[in-house]
Amino acid sequence: MAGDLRDVVSVDRVLHEPARLVLVALLYPVEDAGFLFLLRESGLTRGNLSSHLAKLEEAGYVVVAKGYQGKVPHTDYRLTGDGRKAFRSYRDQMQRALEKLPR
Amino acid sequence: MEAMDVDRALKRPGEYFFEDGLWEITVGLWMALTVALPLLVGGAAGNWSPVVVLLTSLGLRPVVLAAKGRWVYPRTGRVTYPDPEEVPPTEISLGLSPASAPVVVPVSRGRTWGRPVVIGLAAALIMGTGAGVSSRLGFWDAGGHLMIGAFVGSCLLVAAWRWRQRRWFALAVTLALLATVMASSGMDRRRALAFHAAGIACALVVSGTVAFVSYRRRAPKAPIDPDGR
After folding, report:
1. What is the CA radius of gyration of chain A?
2. Among 1.10.10.10, 3.40.30.10, 1.10.10.200, 1.10.1660.10, what is the CATH number of A3-98?
């Protein structure tokens, strides 16, 4: 199989799902972000968001921190080093794969 | 799920920092207290001190973040921005300069040293051109106001485009008009500078307050457990 094709086949399946890709892109430029922020910005339902975040957590791409602001509980998500690396690598792979696509 | 492309998702946290208007309110009040007020109530030389302005500017970011923690994050969610000096250049290009806000001209250290140099050169170019033109036209005293208007207006225009804050286009035009009015006012230099600073501070506070009120209307309070987990 040609190198370019192998690139496409070996793309990260966890990040290839659009909702998870958007979540990782939202987390990429920040230190951490709360569940409420991700919920509003992604437009996902609570259940969907929880399930996608659980998959990212399972893959080791995000870590969860629970805390309180006053009496209000909050859950923050932080992209791990592996998550950042995976996002950059996914972006490069997709760019390489799509740049030769005829218009 | 609404359509959101990856590039937009990368820029959203940066835009989120500015859209509630708290940054403008804080900077406007800071400017009124440290520049406009000392100039208005001071003696002939004014009690304005650049050292005080610079030192107090270091407290702006914590104040904005504390205000966000109180009024914004419970409604629309927390975001922790990395410290400016910890952001590698590649990530700044992806939209993380709000980390350095509310200092208007971000001061960076380490590997990001190139950014202040570029901003400094651009500022020098704009100010130099403004001074040259005003000098040639024979209103050198007024040149300072025009330079302030050109510099602050240009910064706002670039920021408005970069962080998609449409109200800053109107703010930039307002500040340019204010500079023109002050340049042609014929007041003595100190009074004119005091009124100019007060005008900029008022414009920032008004713009920020309008944005903040509109943000509060758009974003109703979240339930007690915002995570729902």
Report:
1. 16
2. 1.10.10.10
